[in-house]
Design brief:
It is built from 10 helices and 8 strands. With 251 residues, it is α/β, with parallel strands linked by helices. It has one domain: Rossmann fold (3-Layer(aba) Sandwich). The chain has an 8-stranded mixed sheet, sandwiched between helices. Strand 1, helix 4 and strand 2 form a beta-alpha-beta unit. It is globular.
Length: 251
């Protein structure tokens, strides 16, 4: 049962038909893993903690730098030089003192990630990919598919962003259905730049998808890739299906 304080704290969500008290209880009982606490991970973590997700596991091996502060809103000047997960954890505690935050200050191997997800059973409902490189994205896709764990994936660079959700259920596509593993070179914000609010736009949608998945509300963007052009202020949606030769979900 929700306490009186929780009923007040989450009242604006509880009044929504798609959430209600039952949905809020699901959020409080959920466990979400966020990979990357940079531009995308910042709004994702902050919105999920504020919305009442009961447990967050934050994974990042980087430290806060001055150049991060332009867009990585979970960090502050006082955090420069500290671990990103520690900085993020401190901010989340100020947003929601009841949210349990686990910090992993290293880059996980595929074996470690598999063990972490599988050992959590039903508690780990969703993995959110806020990473900045394709090797991590493909690894997360493999691990999540093998463990049937939903994956919400986002990316942002320059003025453009994209987001999609992979539920890893039969007859739904995975990330590998969309991209060939050897066809991309990593493009970083340090090399190409990124406008600050862009990561907020994409990260907020990722957080929205997580909440909908947990509460079983509405329709997720599974099987759709949403593409955002910030300069033209336009959205495009590409629909895609499982690829017959996908080595992950069709192998």
């Amino acid at each position: 049962m929700l306490t009186d304080e929780q009923l007040l704290q989450y009242s604006r969500q509880i009044m929504l038909p798609g959430i209600d008290i039952e949905g809020q209880q699901k959020l409080l009982a959920s466990h979400v893993m966020i990979i990357g606490l940079g531009g995308l991970g910042s709004p994702v973590a902050m919105y999920l903690a504020a919305a009442g997700v009961g447990e967050l596991t934050l994974v990042d091996d980087d430290k806060v730098e001055l150049t991060n502060l332009q867009r990585q809103i979970i960090h502050q000047f006082s955090s420069i030089g500290s671990d990103k997960v520690e900085s993020a954890g401190n901010t989340l505690k100020q947003l929601n003192r009841a949210c349990k935050v686990n910090l992993i200050n290293r880059r996980l191997t595929e074996k470690e990630l598999t063990a972490l997800i599988s050992s959590s059973g039903e508690c780990t409902r969703i993995v959110v990919d806020c990473s900045d490189n394709f090797s991590t994205r493909f690894m997360l896709n493999r691990v999540c598919y093998n463990n049937k764990t939903p994956l919400v994936s986002g990316a942002a660079i320059r003025w453009e962003g994209q987001v999609s959700t992979y539920t890893m259920q039969p007859e739904t596509p995975c990330y590998r259905c969309l991209y060939e593993e050897d066809s991309f070179n990593d493009e970083t914000c340090a090399q190409n730049g990124v406008v600050a609010p862009l990561v907020g736009v994409i990260g907020a949608i990722q957080a929205m998808e997580v909440i909908k998945l947990i509460c079983h509300a509405g329709k997720t963007i599974t099987g759709r890739l949403m593409l955002f052009d910030g300069l033209e202020m336009e959205w495009r949606t590409i629909r895609f299906k499982p690829r017959a030769d996908c080595p992950v979900c069709q192998g």
